[in-house]
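Section 5.1 Outputs to date
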Amino acid sequence: QRMEQRKQQEALLTDLLTVLDALDRAVEHWQKAQANVPAPNVPLQPDAPAPDADPAPDDSALVSDAGEESARAASLPSSPQQSWWQQLWGWWNNRSIELSRNHSVEQPSPVKADSSSAPETTNVADVANVASIVTSALDGTELIRTTMADIMTKHQVVPIPAVGQAFDPTVMRALGQEVDETVLPNTVVKEVVRGYRWNDKVLREAQVMVAVSQSAQT
């Protein structure tokens, strides 16, 4: 009876490792998304005009533009009380309405601009809103991942150290070799799949790449 319960517990913990793997990939995805958020088109300050720039508009035009931008920013969902998917839906809904209005008004065919002299810019409010959504998603995913890892640790499920360690066939499985002269041969240089140990038992082998010298490779 006790042996059967242990087998069931081992099977459950092994299944939970796939959830932990998915959370690792999700965190990595949102980290890349956060790094790829474009920089907003920040307007030049009056005390630092661009070379050969056109004369600055009068104060009334600046006030009008600022009012329009403030109204636009206020219409975007930025409440910290909203979840990130609610913010994403609100932002997309506002963008769809705006695009529909723009297409409903007949306008003359735009003159194709020289891409080298007029690069496409991004809207400050849009970029700030996307950055907020991505940051919220990353924070939430990291929180779930950390909580899941803590639960596994309480059940004595811990990762097997791999990168930088000498290859150990009892807890690792080599998927291939990579030339690396900076470490000793047979040293793990890349972890493809993280391994885990449950008490004194290997719950899942670490799948790794090991170093090999250039001379041995040839």
